[in-house]
Each structure stands twice: as C-alpha cells, then as structure tokens.
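Researcher: Quick sanity check before group meeting.
Model: Go ahead. Protein one:
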Amino acid sequence: MRVRILVSFKESVLDPQGQTVKNALLTLGYGFVKDVRQGKVFEIALDGITEEQARRAIPEIADKVLANPIIEKFTWEILTEQKKV
C-alpha cells in the first residue's frame, strides 16, 4: 500500500517561496495566477498493516514527524495500485 501526504503552510502563515514563484509567473506574463503556496510531498510505502491501521497511523506520522503543526497543515490519501502492463 502506498500513501501520499501533502504538507503545506497554514493559510495564516506567510509563504515567501510561494510569493517569489507567483511574482516570477506574473513577470512571465501569467497574469491569471492569483496565488502560489509551496509545500512538501511524501510518498510512503507501507507493508504488513491493514488499510484501517494505516488510516490511524498516517495522521500520527504526519503530525509527529512530517509537519510542524504550529505552522503547517497536511492532507493525505491512500494511492490505488495500478497494474503495470
């Protein structure tokens, strides 16, 4: 089983890297870009646990290790396995 966790700054936290990217996009003529927020993506492979156990463990892992709960938020999803042809 694979899980994807997205960590980003809370809306109330200034995101200077996101602002820099936004300004660069506006300079390049992409005037329709309203906002950019940067973040981190983690993909974790799990083995030997059920989906129910993963649903309990992943928020704990994200909260304790991957995100700083004071300034960051996270979302996560279990990825569906795609068969390789």
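Researcher: Fine. The other one?
Model: Protein two, sequence then structure:
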Amino acid sequence: MKALSLKQPFAELVVSGKKKIELRKWNTKFRGEFLIHASKIPDKKSMEKFGFKELPLGCIVGKARLVDVKHYANDAKRAKDKSLHLADGDWGDYGFILKDARKIKTIPIKGKLGFWDAGVMRT
C-alpha cells in the first residue's frame, strides 16, 4: 500500500479529521487510499502552535483517501482554504484533498519522500 510521510502535528491533524487538505510543492496523479506516516522529526513550532507536547514519530499512524488535487494559482485562493489545510505561508501550490481519514494502530517504519510503497500492511 502507498504511504505519505507528514511531519507531526500535521499527521495527527489529518487522522483526527481536522486537516482536510495536505499542501505540497508537487502534483500527483495518484488517487486512492494510502497510509499516513508520521515523520521521525516533528515541526516543533507547529507542535506548540496546535497545543501538542508529544505525538507518535517514525511510524504509520492512520490512513486516508486522496480524492483530488487542487492547484492554488495564487495566495488568495490558498488563504481561502486555510481552515482546511491549517498551514501558514507557502507550503505549496498543490492541495491534496483528503477523505475518510482515520487513526489505526501505530506501525513503526522508516518513511520516505513522496508517495512510497509501505508493502502489504494489515490496517
């Protein structure tokens, strides 16, 4: 199954249903279900901003379905969706629209860049 690594607290915000769009600097043709991987190194500033002290790192924490990609041609369009992507500044021009996000039992595994093959995992 495909997986995508996100820094904490963004992985947690996705699997808890609070973050519905993941911003990236690159586009993808991939659509479908994938695993959410929490990177080994958190975004400390964002951890504090969203009120988290400790979250799982270096493991699969959930799954979601990528249903579409939205291209943000300018900052005004990106700002309009801020409540859905929860990001400050320019995190990227492509918004991966996520559905059906949920937590699963954590599975320790090393992450990679982009969508990567996490193998066949029971979730």
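Researcher: One line on it for the slide.
Model: The beta strands are 2-6, 21-24, 32-38, 59-71, 94-108, 115-117.
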